[in-house]
Amino acid sequence: MSAVPQVDIREVGPRDGLQIEEPIPTAAKLEFIDALVATGVRRIEVTSFVSPRAIPSLADAEAVAAELGRWPGVEFSALVAGMGGVSRALTAGVRRLEYVVSASDGHSRANVGRSMEESIALIAPIAERVHEVGGHLEVIVAIAFDCPFDGPTPPERVADIARRAMDSGADALAVADTIGTATPGRTTDVLTRVIDATGVKPGLHLHNTRGQGLANAWAAYSLGIRQFDASVGGLGGCPFAPGASGNIATEELAYMFEDSGITTGIDIGRALDAARLVSDRLGKRLTSNLLAAGGVPVPSGSSATSDAT
Amino acid sequence: MSAVPQVDIREVGPRDGLQIEEPIPTAAKLEFIDALVATGVRRIEVTSFVSPRAIPSLADAEAVAAELGRWPGVEFSALVAGMGGVSRALTAGVRRLEYVVSASDGHSRANVGRSMEESIALIAPIAERVHEVGGHLEVIVAIAFDCPFDGPTPPERVADIARRAMDSGADALAVADTIGTATPGRTTDVLTRVIDATGVKPGLHLHNTRGQGLANAWAAYSLGIRQFDASVGGLGGCPFAPGASGNIATEELAYMFEDSGITTGIDIGRALDAARLVSDRLGKRLTSNLLAAGGVPVPSGSSATSDAT
């Protein structure tokens, strides 16, 4: 319809951003989700259905899911790590699921207590179960660059898991730089292999732990990738590195694209508002540089704040 | 000689990084410079010869310059803003100068009390003076994207100033995103125009104020740009935005390139050491994400620190 290029940003703050934080009340999460919806984002990964002992801050997944009818225009999804989570999510009415498979045994065992192959073998039954109720399953290949336990992930392994995921019934794919070590060269390599192996352009889930996130996103855009995960303020972090950055920041990603002439649908000023809201609720300074700078120049977007002195 | 692609990083921490900070003793600067030399970097912008009232933290430019013979393999340069600074720098024995021209009247008047055209008119006499003693003059076109006073900078103006600088005897060019508002799309546009107008591939001076710095550097690399300014730890900042990031961080830039298979000559572990040193001396937390994360994965460089748990 339009000649203006566009990308699709999925907000993952309520899930990936909050998962390592101290729990906040469900009402505060709903207020956060409401602020996110106001940014114009149309896809939000809203929680995960995983063990409440492992991730206490997302123990209220059912309570959050029960309220999602408030925002009818938004596509909500939830992360799952196994069949138990799938059942919970479907029972709670969530129909778009992200199932994570780690591309290393070390991370898979640490994260879900299963080998990588055992996790891959679950894709087909999960897809079947999700499709029975008309749902949509995205498989996220995590640890797609480096594993904190096993070292570098062979890129051909990522492509192989992606191919097997599609063969097992996945509806969509994403590639995740779970610990934030990817760089543009390796991002290009891994994504090219995944596209070649599957014919699918995966989404990309990036962390900014070593400052590389936006450069990776730009390199991926140059390859034709159009779906990106992000969280306002760069919410989240790494449990192993205090003060480390979390996901790439929604407002920085949106500014990169919008100012480069690529539509995101995100209102940057409202993304900053949502970042400030969750920063206040958590009592924690977020790591987004754009948030610290206070805004973007006026000409780049009508709703952006000015830093003119 | 080699098929391995490479880039050339100029460390600007002692100049751009320190200029807005409280003054530190000359001895501490020399210790910092020594730590920078140990990173393997071969070009350092070491100070500026400007008004000590305007920039008190660089008032010791002559004292710093007098000690540079300690490090014979390194190419030191200094920034100047007018003929008085040129005379001081040459008298102090510095032979590589960067002369800054703002691409807006508002910034030019605020920064040096001259119009943009008056600053451009000084290029020819400065080049003549520098060349009389066998020196080298780089002209940096500052405010190449947006001006905090005048709004967006027309990209054709940047190209025009670059062309006039080369016509006036400049030996090299750089383009500076002084306030950190550039994005990959506009970086590509401005650099393409400068290259088309001059036949010269300029260096690129980036700030990470809105998180875009490395994405811009990657976009510029894709255009054939091979010279980049950076400062360890992302030292520096914006006087108008407390807590805002400064220059792109040397260690993040080096990691981006090295891990992508592009040689920088920078030892990332030693760059982190230099960042920690200056952070201690300033009593200030720096904004580099890689510094907060504590290092890069082992496989990316033999001297890099590990974050394996």
TrEMBL record, chains A, B:
Keywords, alphabetical: Lyase, Metal-binding
UniProt keyword Lyase present: yes
Pfam family, one: HMGL-like
Entry's Gene Ontology BP terms: ketone body biosynthetic process; L-leucine catabolic process
Protein name, per record: Putative hydroxymethylglutaryl-CoA lyase
Source species of the chain: Gordonia rhizosphera NBRC 16068
GO MF annotation list: hydroxymethylglutaryl-CoA lyase activity; metal ion binding
Coiled coil: none
Family named by the database record: Belongs to the HMG-CoA lyase family.
Domain Pyruvate carboxyltransferase: 7-272
